[in-house]
Amino acid sequence: MQHIKSQMLDRELKEGSAELLILSLVEDQPRHGYDLSKLIEARSEGVLKFRVASLYPLLYRLEKRGWIQGRWIEKAGQRRRRYYRLTPAGEQVLKSQRNTWREFAEAINRVAGVEST
Amino acid sequence: MPWQDLPEEVAQHLQDLYDDLRARGASDEEARREVAAELSACGLREESESAPAAIFGDDARRSARASGGGAPLALIEAANFSHSPFADVGGDLRYACRALRRYPGFAAVVILTLALGIGANAAIFSVVNAVLLRPLPYDRDGRLVAVWGNLHKPGLEEIPGSAAEFVDYKARNRVFDAIAAHDTAGVNLTGFEQPERVPGAVTTASLFSMLGESPALGRSFVAADEQPGRNHVVIVSHSLWQRRLGGDPHVVGRTMAVDGTNVEIVGVMRAGFAFPDDVTELWQPLAFTAEDVSEDQRGSHSYTIIGRLKPGATVSHARAEMKTLGEQMGAEHRNVYRAGFSASVRPLHEELVGNVGPALFVLLAGVGVVLVIACANVANLLLARATARQKEMAIRAALGAGRMRIVGQLLTESVLLGLCGGALGLLLAVWGVHGLVALAPPSIPRLNEIGVDGRVVSLTSLVSMLTGVLFGLVPALHASRHDVHETLKDGTRTSADGGTRGRVRRALVISEVALSLVLLIAAGLLINSFARVQDVHPGFNPDHVLTARLALPPSTYTTLEQGHGFVADLFARLAEAHGVVAAAAINAVPFSGRGGDRSFFVEGRPVAPGEPSPDEQVRFATAGYFTAMQIPLVRGREFTAHDVDAALHVAVVNEAFARKYWPAPSSVEGPNESPLGKRVQFQQETTNRYEIVGVVGNVKHRALDVTEKPELYVPIFQPLFEGFRMPPMDLVVRTASDPVLFAPALREIVTALDRDQPISDVRTLEQRIGQSLASRRFNMLLLGLFAALALVLAAVGIYGVVAYTVTERTHEIGVRLALGAQPRDVLAMLVGQGMTLAAAGAAIGIVIAVALTRVMAGLLFGISPTDPATFGVITGVLALVALVACYLPARRATGVNPVTALRNE
Fold first, then answer.
1. Do A63 and B55 lie within an 8 Å CB cutoff?
2. Does pLDDT of B52 surpass 80?
3. What is the pLDDT of residue B62?
4. What integer pLDDT is reported at residue B307 of this predicted model?
5. A11 pLDDT exceeds 80?
6. Whether domain A11-109 has CATH 3.20.20.100
């Protein structure tokens, strides 16, 4: 039982963290998929890297939940791209996920801090 | 959320990545590699439950499946941009493997169907290859030819040579660098626990070197061995050496008793050496005596003559030269060659395999048709699946894959299927070839050489690949022709009836039905012929008769009287033996393959100089032969024990003989003139005449499917000429119970009379007749098997189309039912549609069959190649099978619940 629970937690964590990343990045302005993958890689200084195979399914899932919305936008001289922006529902989720993450990170830090000293 | 936007988005992503990398100074190649890595990462994630897979989880898969797109990530991997920069065979193959793994059931059905088709082809081709195509093991460069004489008389246009002719050919020809004569000569081996009759051959010394063979142990024959009196040497086969001589490595120089004479073993051939046939186990040198090559014996044609062409000489050179040479000989010996003489040559390979060719090619054509039907079936399956894969193809087209890329990818898949089918087919063939060899009639030459060799493997691989292209091309072209936007729109419903795809599917089924009907009719004709042949009465009663070959060696039984004594004792003992109803002997029992003709003269009918004398089948029989065989006596009497040399010489003829030589006056209908009391003689100047005392019924002598020949029977103990010795005989023993059980007793009785006397070729008459039908049975069984296979495949094809229609039209059927249609109306509609296809196929098939079955006229018996009854019955069988194949899936449709069907919409 303990084992299963920890697996679930692990999975939710990863899923949650990936969602959090995307939602954060589209908070200020709409972005397309390639832009998002570059930003994640750049800002994490190469630690986090999303491949096509993980990125787009995630985007689609977030869109299905109504947290982000994608729209095809054509700019002069370029092929059309799909831009994603945060929806009001997404804003709520982002806020709550940021809180959850903060609490979670602090908890980890507290525990890890005790153990590490 | 439009899942179908994914391809375009991903494509854009990859394009951005590529552009970015190039902008940062990467070479085109590096950038492509990077993009490829991005793609292959998709593949990895698809396969494994790695963390990222967990991240995007089941959601995407569900979406993908719901949109009919299969697994999207694998698609992305395989997809290529319009300028096709990442196309590679390896990738295509990987993708194809993955695609097939996703549909294991489909792949299994296709591979199995192909394996049956390809395997059957590979097996038959193995036979054709070994028998017809592969050069003879001892004649790799095709320089060996057989030389035949031509006496310019009907039936005597291609005869073996005499010793004198051989000597002339050898001395005078300029086209052969070697020439040899040989003849089969069975011998009695004695000095072992059990005497044994062994098939052997006599040959001139030149034979082995001509064949490029020398014994594995010891030496070949040399010229000295050809001297009469110095010819007491023998070369044995590997099998005889193992079986009788214990495989003794020091066997050379040992002696053994052959036909009662001690001969020295000088050589042992290698295992597998087979000449002139597969069974020969012993070779003795042919030593021509002065008598053999004399003018008197010039007409006794008993040797097969083969020559090896000089380098540079062609068969047509040899043909021209031997013709001239023969004509010269004809002119020089007019008293022997009354109607003239010439000689001809034929390649030895053709000689050996000539008459099995047509039947094998019919089988090869039949099995080829099975493969075509299998291809049609698989193409149909692929077309059906292409519908399910429409979205997958559309996504790849959207990702920028050009049409040719998609066709290429789909062809890779079908060729892969073809190769898998081929590999499995080869395994089936290896197994099937064993069966074929076991089943094959002994009349097929070179049976021991049949096997799956490099040529069979290469041809099978080629056929498998071509097969893959053949069945894959049409579906691939169809699948790639999609309007992307139309397909990707949800709710696009393809009608089973509409569209080229439906037309192609129906056309495929029609051709399958047509082709299988052709095969079925061909098989039906063979089966029908076989039944008719079996019903032919042979002219004697083969029930409960045991036969055995008894060859008294001339060295022991030097005179006819000695032979007579032995036979009289033998029949006396047989008469006392329990369970013997009758016993007799003849030099050539029917269905033994033995027997020959002789020329003779009818008393009072002189033959004008230059005219050929009559020439018919002559047999030598003992008293009671016709009774023992239950050959009806039509007139007069049969031979008795009193018909010996000292008594009046008599003969019995069959009805065909009587009718030919004493026909009824043409103006009068009625019985022919009685031959009784007429006399025949075997030399022109002789007082040794044979009075015809009986007329017996005709018998089939060589096969049930040939007309009876005129036959003249002479008592075996009334010699034709001075020095006539008893020929080898076939004993005929009619028994009260199972004749097979009498074989040991017969052997015992013979050895009790002479410890060294073997009997051989012990078989019942029924077995002999059965063996004469072996090649017919072989052809019938194989073609029947192929036809059955074709029928099953065609039925599966019809079933598939109807079942597919039902699935596609569930909605429409639901509406019909909801609107009050009766289930049986729906059933009739669906069955009607399937049967329309079957009827169209049958009509085409009948037309093809009428045109094609002519080529197999030679394989038929008592039936026309367009026999209406066979055509009718077979078409009926096909219709019945088609009806079942339509009914089963159609019945499912009547169970459609209108509400469910409509809600699905």
1. no
2. no
3. 40
4. 94
5. no
6. no
CB B82 within 8 A of CB B402: yes
Output phi, psi for A63, to 5 deg.
-65, -40
HEC string for B41-53? HHHHHHHCCCHHH
What chain A residue is nearest to B55 in terms of C-alpha separation? A15
> Which tokens is B838 given?
């079957």
Q: Is the pLDDT of residue B55 over 70?
A: no
pLDDT recorded at residue B4: 59
Q: Would you state the pLDDT for residue B893?
A: 80
- Contact criterion met (CB below 8 Å) for B885 and B800: no
Percentage of chain B exceeding pLDDT 90: 39
Nearest CA-CA partner of B217 in B167, B271, B285:
B271
Query: Using CB atoms within 10 A of its CB, is residue A6 exposed (0-12), middle (13-18) or buried (19+)?
Result: exposed
Residue B442 is classified by DSSP as T
Q: Name the helix (H) or strand (E) containing B905.
A: none
Q: What string of DSSP letters covers A49-113?
A: ---HHHHHHHHHHHHHTTSEEEEEE--TTS--EEEEEE-HHHHHHHHHHHHHHHHHHHHHHHHHH
Token look-up 């070697």 returns: B178
User: What's the rounded mean pLDDT across residues A54-65?
Assistant: 84
- Chain A CB within 8 Å of residue B58 CB: no
Interchain proximity B56–A61, CB inside 8 Å: yes
Residue with token string 């008893």 = B726
Flag whether residue A109 sits within 8 Å of chain B, measured between CB atoms. Answer: no
* B78 pLDDT more than 50: no
- Give which of B626, B628, B627, B673 is closest to B652, Cα–Cα: B626
CB contact under 8 A, B6 and A56: yes
- pLDDT-based confidence at B230, cuts 50/70/90? confident
Check if B73 contacts A (Cβ < 8 Å). Answer: yes
Q: Which of the pair, B765 or B806, is modelled with greater confidence?
A: B765
Rounded-to-integer distance, Cα B600 and Cα A1, Å: 108
The 3-state DSSP class for residue B413 equals: helix
Largest pairwise CA distance in chain A: 58
Tell me the C-alpha distance between B487 and B480, whole Å.
12
Q: State the residue for tokens 């979205």.
A: B391
B16 close to A (CB below 8 A): yes
> In the prediction, which pLDDT does A14 show?
57
Q: HEC profile for B461-496?
A: HHHHHHHHHHHHHHHHHHHCCCCHHHHHCCCCCCCC
- Asked if A56 and B10 come within 8 Å (Cβ–Cβ), the reply is yes
| pLDDT tens by residue, B721-743 | 877 888 899 999 999 999 999 99
- Tally of CB atoms within 10 A around B47: 14
Out of A55-69, B16-30, B196-210, give the one with best mean pLDDT. Answer: B196-210
Query: Residues with Cβ < 8 Å from B578, sequence gap 6 or more?
Result: none
Size of interface A-B (CB pairs under 8 A): 79
Q: Nearest CA to B705 among B802, B775, B648?
A: B775
Q: In this complex, is the C-beta atom of A53 within 8 Å of any C-beta atom belonging to chain B?
A: yes
pLDDT of residue B395: 62
Name residue B636's beta-bridge partners. B694
Q: Judge whether B100 and B413 are in contact, CB under 8 Å.
A: yes
Taking contacts as CB-CB distances below 8 angstroms, the residues of chain B near A15 are 54-55, 57
Interface test with A, best of B1, B10, B399 (most A CBs within 10 A): B1
Both structure tokens of B845? 């098939």
Model pLDDT for residues B589-625, shown as the tens digit of each residue: 999 888 888 888 898 888 877 677 788 899 999 999 9
Lowest mean pLDDT among B159-168, B607-616, B716-725, B777-786: B607-616
What pLDDT is attached to residue B7? 67
Q: Which residue carries 């000449």 as its tokens?
A: B275
Contact of B342 with B323, CB cutoff 8 Å: yes
β-strands B261-268, B233-236 pairing: parallel
